Amino acid sequence: MKLVDVLLLSLTVVFIIVGAYEVMTVGLGSAYWAIMLSLVLFFAYSIRKRSA
User: Fold this and answer.
1) CA-closest candidate to residue 18, choices 3, 30, 5
2) Which position among 3, 14, 37, 47 has the lowest Cβ density within 10 Å, counted as fewest Cβ atoms?
3) Where are the alpha helices (DSSP H) in the chain?
4) Alpha-carbon torsion (20, 13, 15, 38), positive or negative
């Protein structure tokens, strides 16, 4: 696993945790950005893994 893959996967986990916390405290509308960013990062990670 390359450094970029590790960073993408780590940032995905971080933004999932941030999104879950935001959903619990202020609601889904305010946490939408973190959830969507984690999905984009996960898709980028899976595309990189598939092409390698």
Assistant:
1) 30
2) 3
3) 3-25, 28-51
4) negative
Rg (CA), the chain: 12
Task: Say if residues 36 and 15 touch (Cβ distance below 8 Å).
Answer: no
pLDDT digits (tens, 9 = 90+) for 5-33: 999 999 999 999 999 999 999 999 999 99
Q: Are 45 and 2 in contact (CB under 8 A)?
A: no
Tokens of 34: 């973190």
- Token pair in block for residue 16: 């999932």
Full-model pTM:
0.90
d(CA 43, CA 13): 13
Tell me how crowded residue 20 is: count the other CB atoms within 10 A of its CB: 14
